Amino acid sequence: MPAENTREGKKTKPRAKNTRAIIEPYVRQGIPNTEIAEKTGIKYSTVWAAAKKIRDQMAETKGKNADRHLCKTCKYRAAAYNPKSSGIKCEYALKSGKRSRRCNVEDCDKYEKGAPVRVKDEM
Question: How far apart are CA 20 and CA 37, in angstroms?
Answer without folding.
Answer: 12
